[in-house]
Amino acid sequence: MFDTHSHLNFKAFSDDYKQVIEECIGKNLYLINVGADLDTSQKAIEISDPENKIFASVGVHPLHVREGIDYQKLSLIAEDDSVVAVGEAGLDSYSKAKKNLQKDVFLNHLEIADKLNLPLILHCRKMHEDLLEILPEGRGVIHCFTGTLSQAKRYIEKGYLIGFNGIIFKLNLKNVIEGVPVDKILLETDCPFLHPAGGDRRNDPMEVETISKKVAEIKNMESDELLQITKKSACKLFEIN
Ligand SMILES: [Zn+2]
User: Fold this and answer.
1) I need a labelling partner for 34 at 20 to 30 A (CA). Which of 53, 151, 207, 238 fits?
2) pTM of the predicted model, to two decimals?
3) 190 alpha carbon to ligand 1 midpoint, in Å?
Protein backbone atom coordinates (compact mmCIF):
# COMPACT_ATOMS: atom_id res chain seq x y z
CA MET A 1 0.00 0.00 0.00
CA PHE A 2 1.03 3.59 -0.57
CA ASP A 3 -0.57 6.59 1.12
CA THR A 4 0.60 9.35 -1.20
CA HIS A 5 -0.81 12.19 0.92
CA SER A 6 -0.59 12.05 4.67
CA HIS A 7 -0.02 14.59 7.46
CA LEU A 8 1.58 12.72 10.35
CA ASN A 9 3.64 15.93 10.56
CA PHE A 10 0.51 17.79 11.81
CA LYS A 11 -0.48 18.54 15.41
CA ALA A 12 -3.15 15.82 15.48
CA PHE A 13 -0.34 13.25 15.51
CA SER A 14 2.19 15.06 17.73
CA ASP A 15 1.68 12.56 20.58
CA ASP A 16 1.88 9.34 18.63
CA TYR A 17 3.32 9.85 15.14
CA LYS A 18 6.17 7.51 16.00
CA GLN A 19 3.77 4.68 16.76
CA VAL A 20 1.72 5.37 13.63
CA ILE A 21 4.86 5.38 11.50
CA GLU A 22 6.01 2.14 13.09
CA GLU A 23 2.67 0.61 12.28
CA CYS A 24 2.99 1.76 8.65
CA ILE A 25 6.50 0.30 8.39
CA GLY A 26 5.22 -2.95 9.94
CA LYS A 27 2.57 -3.16 7.23
CA ASN A 28 5.03 -2.21 4.48
CA LEU A 29 2.88 0.85 3.82
CA TYR A 30 4.74 3.53 1.88
CA LEU A 31 3.96 7.08 2.90
CA ILE A 32 4.50 10.72 1.98
CA ASN A 33 4.02 13.28 4.74
CA VAL A 34 3.06 16.52 3.03
CA GLY A 35 3.99 19.97 4.33
CA ALA A 36 1.51 22.85 4.27
CA ASP A 37 3.90 25.64 5.33
CA LEU A 38 7.59 25.91 6.16
CA ASP A 39 7.19 24.53 9.69
CA THR A 40 5.16 21.46 8.76
CA SER A 41 7.42 20.90 5.74
CA GLN A 42 10.42 20.80 8.03
CA LYS A 43 8.55 18.50 10.39
CA ALA A 44 7.79 16.15 7.49
CA ILE A 45 11.52 15.92 6.78
CA GLU A 46 12.33 15.48 10.46
CA ILE A 47 10.01 12.47 10.86
CA SER A 48 10.92 10.92 7.50
CA ASP A 49 12.64 7.56 7.23
CA PRO A 50 13.40 7.03 3.53
CA GLU A 51 14.98 3.63 4.10
CA ASN A 52 11.64 2.48 5.44
CA LYS A 53 9.70 4.33 2.71
CA ILE A 54 8.51 7.23 4.85
CA PHE A 55 9.04 10.30 2.65
CA ALA A 56 8.38 14.04 2.72
CA SER A 57 7.00 16.74 0.45
CA VAL A 58 7.56 20.45 1.06
CA GLY A 59 5.37 23.39 0.16
CA VAL A 60 2.98 26.13 1.20
CA HIS A 61 -0.73 25.24 1.01
CA PRO A 62 -2.94 27.95 -0.54
CA LEU A 63 -4.72 28.40 2.81
CA HIS A 64 -1.35 29.42 4.30
CA VAL A 65 -0.35 31.75 1.49
CA ARG A 66 0.89 35.20 2.49
CA GLU A 67 3.38 37.82 1.32
CA GLY A 68 7.05 37.25 2.02
CA ILE A 69 7.38 33.48 1.85
CA ASP A 70 11.01 32.41 2.16
CA TYR A 71 11.42 30.51 -1.12
CA GLN A 72 15.14 30.23 -0.67
CA LYS A 73 14.59 28.27 2.50
CA LEU A 74 11.86 26.19 0.91
CA SER A 75 14.14 25.37 -2.01
CA LEU A 76 16.99 24.52 0.35
CA ILE A 77 14.99 22.08 2.48
CA ALA A 78 13.53 20.56 -0.70
CA GLU A 79 17.03 19.25 -1.44
CA ASP A 80 16.86 16.84 1.49
CA ASP A 81 17.11 13.17 0.48
CA SER A 82 13.72 12.41 2.03
CA VAL A 83 11.90 14.93 -0.19
CA VAL A 84 10.18 13.30 -3.15
CA ALA A 85 7.87 16.15 -4.23
CA VAL A 86 7.08 19.85 -4.02
CA GLY A 87 3.70 20.72 -2.46
CA GLU A 88 1.12 20.84 -1.43
CA ALA A 89 0.67 23.94 -3.49
CA GLY A 90 -2.11 25.24 -5.67
CA LEU A 91 -5.29 27.28 -5.52
CA ASP A 92 -8.16 27.24 -3.02
CA SER A 93 -11.38 29.22 -3.23
CA TYR A 94 -11.58 29.14 0.60
CA SER A 95 -8.23 30.91 1.02
CA LYS A 96 -8.20 34.45 2.37
CA ALA A 97 -5.31 35.27 0.05
CA LYS A 98 -6.21 37.00 -3.21
CA LYS A 99 -6.19 34.98 -6.40
CA ASN A 100 -3.16 36.81 -7.82
CA LEU A 101 -1.08 36.15 -4.72
CA GLN A 102 -2.12 32.48 -4.70
CA LYS A 103 -1.07 32.20 -8.34
CA ASP A 104 2.23 33.93 -7.67
CA VAL A 105 3.04 31.59 -4.77
CA PHE A 106 2.05 28.61 -6.89
CA LEU A 107 4.33 29.70 -9.74
CA ASN A 108 7.22 29.96 -7.28
CA HIS A 109 6.59 26.32 -6.32
CA LEU A 110 6.67 25.39 -10.00
CA GLU A 111 10.07 27.00 -10.30
CA ILE A 112 11.48 25.07 -7.35
CA ALA A 113 10.05 21.78 -8.64
CA ASP A 114 11.54 22.53 -12.04
CA LYS A 115 14.93 23.42 -10.67
CA LEU A 116 15.15 20.30 -8.49
CA ASN A 117 13.40 18.07 -11.02
CA LEU A 118 10.74 17.02 -8.50
CA PRO A 119 7.08 16.18 -9.20
CA LEU A 120 4.28 18.35 -7.78
CA ILE A 121 1.62 17.56 -5.21
CA LEU A 122 -1.18 19.92 -6.17
CA HIS A 123 -4.08 21.10 -4.06
CA CYS A 124 -7.07 22.66 -5.77
CA ARG A 125 -10.49 23.44 -4.34
CA LYS A 126 -13.12 24.81 -6.68
CA MET A 127 -10.57 26.68 -8.83
CA HIS A 128 -9.73 24.03 -11.43
CA GLU A 129 -10.26 26.32 -14.42
CA ASP A 130 -7.82 28.86 -12.95
CA LEU A 131 -5.28 26.12 -12.20
CA LEU A 132 -5.61 24.46 -15.60
CA GLU A 133 -4.98 27.85 -17.20
CA ILE A 134 -1.60 28.36 -15.50
CA LEU A 135 -0.43 24.76 -15.06
CA PRO A 136 2.15 23.73 -17.66
CA GLU A 137 2.67 20.15 -18.80
CA GLY A 138 4.61 18.27 -16.15
CA ARG A 139 4.67 15.56 -13.51
CA GLY A 140 2.58 15.40 -10.39
CA VAL A 141 -0.75 14.59 -8.79
CA ILE A 142 -3.93 16.59 -8.26
CA HIS A 143 -4.59 15.40 -4.73
CA CYS A 144 -8.08 15.06 -3.22
CA PHE A 145 -9.62 15.49 -6.63
CA THR A 146 -13.21 16.78 -6.57
CA GLY A 147 -13.50 18.35 -10.02
CA THR A 148 -15.32 17.07 -13.09
CA LEU A 149 -14.30 14.20 -15.36
CA SER A 150 -13.47 16.60 -18.18
CA GLN A 151 -11.17 18.57 -15.85
CA ALA A 152 -9.54 15.31 -14.71
CA LYS A 153 -8.93 14.40 -18.35
CA ARG A 154 -7.31 17.76 -19.04
CA TYR A 155 -4.92 17.28 -16.10
CA ILE A 156 -4.08 13.80 -17.38
CA GLU A 157 -3.37 15.23 -20.85
CA LYS A 158 -0.88 17.59 -19.23
CA GLY A 159 0.88 14.60 -17.65
CA TYR A 160 -0.64 14.60 -14.15
CA LEU A 161 -2.23 11.85 -12.08
CA ILE A 162 -5.46 12.07 -10.08
CA GLY A 163 -5.52 11.43 -6.32
CA PHE A 164 -8.59 10.04 -4.56
CA ASN A 165 -9.20 9.87 -0.81
CA GLY A 166 -12.02 9.48 1.73
CA ILE A 167 -13.93 12.43 0.29
CA ILE A 168 -15.30 9.93 -2.25
CA PHE A 169 -17.52 8.64 0.55
CA LYS A 170 -19.01 12.11 0.96
CA LEU A 171 -19.19 13.46 -2.57
CA ASN A 172 -20.41 11.52 -5.56
CA LEU A 173 -17.33 11.09 -7.76
CA LYS A 174 -18.46 7.81 -9.32
CA ASN A 175 -18.39 9.01 -12.92
CA VAL A 176 -14.96 10.64 -12.41
CA ILE A 177 -13.54 7.42 -10.92
CA GLU A 178 -15.11 5.40 -13.73
CA GLY A 179 -13.64 7.70 -16.37
CA VAL A 180 -10.08 8.06 -15.08
CA PRO A 181 -7.85 5.22 -16.36
CA VAL A 182 -6.68 3.01 -13.52
CA ASP A 183 -3.02 3.73 -14.25
CA LYS A 184 -3.68 7.46 -13.74
CA ILE A 185 -5.04 7.02 -10.20
CA LEU A 186 -3.18 7.49 -6.91
CA LEU A 187 -4.64 6.65 -3.51
CA GLU A 188 -4.21 8.78 -0.40
CA THR A 189 -5.83 9.45 2.97
CA ASP A 190 -5.08 13.15 3.67
CA CYS A 191 -5.08 12.07 7.33
CA PRO A 192 -5.84 13.38 9.96
CA PHE A 193 -8.64 14.76 7.78
CA LEU A 194 -11.36 13.08 5.73
CA HIS A 195 -11.89 9.79 7.54
CA PRO A 196 -13.91 7.53 5.20
CA ALA A 197 -16.49 7.10 7.99
CA GLY A 198 -16.95 10.90 8.17
CA GLY A 199 -17.35 13.00 11.29
CA ASP A 200 -14.48 14.28 13.43
CA ARG A 201 -12.74 10.92 13.70
CA ARG A 202 -8.98 11.14 13.17
CA ASN A 203 -8.05 9.51 9.90
CA ASP A 204 -4.84 7.46 9.55
CA PRO A 205 -2.73 5.98 6.72
CA MET A 206 -4.18 2.48 7.16
CA GLU A 207 -7.49 3.78 5.79
CA VAL A 208 -5.96 3.74 2.31
CA GLU A 209 -7.29 0.17 2.25
CA THR A 210 -10.90 1.34 2.78
CA ILE A 211 -10.49 3.91 0.02
CA SER A 212 -9.02 1.29 -2.30
CA LYS A 213 -11.99 -1.00 -1.73
CA LYS A 214 -14.45 1.73 -2.71
CA VAL A 215 -12.50 2.80 -5.81
CA ALA A 216 -12.00 -0.85 -6.83
CA GLU A 217 -15.73 -1.51 -6.46
CA ILE A 218 -16.49 1.38 -8.83
CA LYS A 219 -13.77 0.20 -11.25
CA ASN A 220 -15.15 -3.33 -11.01
CA MET A 221 -11.81 -4.85 -10.05
CA GLU A 222 -10.12 -6.45 -7.03
CA SER A 223 -8.90 -4.06 -4.36
CA ASP A 224 -5.54 -5.85 -4.09
CA GLU A 225 -4.93 -5.37 -7.78
CA LEU A 226 -5.79 -1.67 -7.51
CA LEU A 227 -3.44 -1.28 -4.54
CA GLN A 228 -0.68 -2.84 -6.61
CA ILE A 229 -1.28 -0.73 -9.71
CA THR A 230 -1.57 2.55 -7.77
CA LYS A 231 1.54 1.77 -5.74
CA LYS A 232 3.46 1.16 -8.94
CA SER A 233 2.23 4.48 -10.39
CA ALA A 234 3.20 6.31 -7.19
CA CYS A 235 6.68 4.76 -7.11
CA LYS A 236 7.18 5.78 -10.74
CA LEU A 237 5.99 9.36 -10.18
CA PHE A 238 8.00 9.93 -7.00
CA GLU A 239 10.99 7.92 -8.27
CA ILE A 240 10.97 5.41 -5.44
CA ASN A 241 12.59 2.01 -5.93
ZN1 LIG B 1 -3.30 17.69 2.54
Assistant:
1) 151
2) 0.96
3) 5
